[in-house]
Design goal:
Radius of gyration: 17 Å
Distance between the termini: 22 Å
Number of strands: 8
Bound molecules: adenosine-5'-diphosphate
Order of helices and strands: EHEHHHEHEHEEEHHEH
Structural class: alpha/beta
Length: 222
């Protein structure tokens, strides 16, 4: 089963993707994570994307489609979760072609609905563990007082993303509304779209997603 998690920055796509990896053995393909790795590797491509990402703009379709193509070729028994991809119509078309060419299907597109005020609050309060990527939030899930990650136990290695500031976030939201949000209509028309309420507690969102994936909810558009 291959699925897309679709939603604005801060909607909780990464958190939900991690849960699906743990519980269903799916493989998470986060273009944001891949690009951050490329950035840290100091390669020529990495240097090119670093500046674009810091500003909150989108990296070129060519680069991200190339990254996804490589991963799809490796295959995944439990299926892929596309997290942060596609972000443009060209990327969505390319994903369709790539899946067709490997004989794979796209089984669900889960749109995560969150209001914009909540997004800004979530993102500016966000940090992640440098050891395992566990996500913390200053308000709803603070870093433990002993400084140890609750997931992997690593001590005092919490990071804030360079683009998790108000200025970059404004650009990221604008990029989302200008270039990505129409993918909701695109997948609705293809008959793949389901909505979940991204404002709920993490566990409640997990349940809603499970219902969609296990057929409890009609994923058609009829
Ligand atoms: P968020 O969803 O919180 O904005 P991501 O980690 O998915 O965070 O993405 C961070 C940045 O990486 C984006 O702002 C953009 O610069 C770049 N990026 C990630 N995925 C894509 C993509 N599919 N196409 C273009 N740029 C991307």
């Amino acid at each position: 089963m291959n699925i897309i998690l679709l939603g604005p920055p801060g909607a909780g796509k990464g958190t939900q993707a991690r849960h699906l990896v743990e519980t269903r053995g799916m493989v998470q393909l986060s273009t944001g994570d891949m690009l951050r790795e490329a950035k840290d590797s100091g390669t020529e491509m990495g240097n090119r994307v670093a500046e674009v990402m810091a500003k909150g703009e989108l990296v070129t379709d060519e680069i991200v489609i190339g990254l996804i193509r490589e991963k799809l070729e490796q295959g995944a028994k439990g299926g892929f979760i596309f997290d942060g991809f596609p972000r443009t119509l060209a990327q969505a078309d390319a994903l369709g072609d790539l899946l067709n060419s490997t004989g794979e299907t796209l089984d669900a597109v889960i749109a995560m609905e969150v209001n914009d005020d909540a997004l800004v609050e979530r993102i500016t309060a966000r940090s992640t563990c440098g050891g395992c990527g566990e996500v913390y939030n200053d308000v709803t899930k603070p870093i433990p007082a002993d400084g140890k990650c609750t997931n992997c136990g690593k001590e005092n290695d919490f990071k804030r993303r360079a683009d998790d500031n108000e200025e970059s976030l404004k650009t990221r939201l604008m990029e989302y509304y200008k270039k990505t949000s129409m993918l909701i209509g695109y997948y609705y028309a293809k008959g793949n779209l389901s909505w979940v309420d991204g404002l709920g507690e993490i566990g409640a969102v997990q349940n809603e997603i499970s219902q969609v994936l296990d057929g409890g909810v009609d994923v058609g558009n009829g």
